[in-house]
Amino acid sequence: MDTDVRPVAPRRLDWLSNEADRWVSEGILTEDAAETIKRRYVASHAGSLTRVVSYLGGGFLGVGLLWLVATNLDELSPLVRFVGIVLIWLAFTAAAEALPLPRPLRGAFRGIAAMGFGGVVFQAAQSLQVPAYEPSLVGVWGLGALLYAYASAGLAPLVVGIVTTMIWFDWQVVASSESTFAGVFAVLVGGAVATAMAALHDRGQETFAQVWRLAGGVLVLGGLFVAAIPQIGDHDLAWSPTLVVALGIAGLLVTVAVLRTDGLSRWEVLASALIVPTGLALVAWDPQVDDLGSVSGEAWLSAFVSIGVYVVVAGAVAVDGSVRDRTLLVVLATGALVAFTTMQSFAVFAPIMSGATLFLVLGVLLLLTGFVFDRARRGVAANLSEALS
Q: In the prediction, which pLDDT does 194 show?
């Protein structure tokens, strides 16, 4: 094989081939030049496989480090345990930033370092006699991972930082307010913040924008999923200082994102902000289904409104993923819609149908929903792409 041939992802090779053909048709390239360019590249999945294996290995190693700390290592003194986990954390950080590693391995090392920082935080807390089940510890871990992500431009620390920060935020809100309503509110507000962050990263840091946008989709769809469950819990919003401060920060980020962006990014931010009061309204709407032998008209209406809202939001996320060519967003929206429809069917419709009838109706409903949903997604995506081009 020619030593100048470079392996690339099949998707990129298809794009290059199509572009080369278009350049030939426009007279920019000759056919011989286009063929010469195409011969320099070959489709290969090796890079993707390497990334998957590297990140899986890094994930297992990072979890192992945390597990090692969690077991307390009683045979060692607190000082030795703390110094040991700090040295491991510093070693992976130094290796990721100083050694000439391949990109997948560098990313895996950065992820291990971000997870190892959590071990440092929890081991330090244990040495200082701080209770392990304290949300502030997860918050410190998340903040450190986010700072490392932006200092190193690493995606793996960014993922660790977003996940841990959102765990801390929701945990802190629920613990301080003791309200399910507040917990749903926190998740939806987190979705608005993540979407605003994605919009602000669209110009200059596209890879970070992808991670923030996926996080926003997970939080928005997850928050709405819980909000639409009948009788999910208390229906009184108990305010807490954490929730008030977070709402203020979210409002500021959404405002800045709307003012500094345009087009699709701005619409994403506005839609995510609108979903927050929509989700709260679904939580507050309690149809009072007390008798499992009968379902009231209000319960039927609540179920259909919840499904309608979720279909619209999931469809918007899928269209967004199609327009931006982000398969994960499309898969996320489709899977969330299927899971939500199944949950609603059992939660509201099951009391009035036998098991067999329920599955038959649900199967037909999902097939029809999937067909209409996919057709609508393709049509809207095509029209929107043409409008934005």
A: 95
pLDDT at residue 191 in the model: 94
Residue 217: what pLDDT? 92
CB 215 within 8 A of CB 194: yes
**How many domains does the structure of the chain reveal?**
2
- On whether both 16 and 75 belong to a single domain, the answer is no
Domain stops at, among 153, 177, 201: 177
| Residue 22 backbone phi and psi in degrees, to 5 | -70, -40
- Radius of gyration of the chain from its Cα atoms, rounded to whole angstroms: 25
Residue type, 154: G
Angle, CA of 69, 70 and 74, to the nearest 5°: 75
- The reply to whether 1 and 117 lie within a common domain is no
Strand partners, 8: 43
Is 184 part of any domain? no
CA separation for the pair 232, 217 (Å, rounded): 21
What pTM did the predictor assign?
A: 0.76
Nearest to 219 by CA among 185, 255, 246: 185
- The reply to whether 71 falls in a domain is yes
Sign of CA dihedral 254, 255, 260, 261: positive
Residue with tokens 């990014």: 265
Domain coverage including residue 152: 51-177
Closest CA to 59 of 117, 113, 19: 113
Query: Of all helices (H) and strands (E), which one includes residue 43?
Result: strand 41-43
Sign of the C-alpha dihedral, residues 128, 134, 135, 138? positive
Alpha-carbon distance of 122 to 144, in angstroms, equals: 13
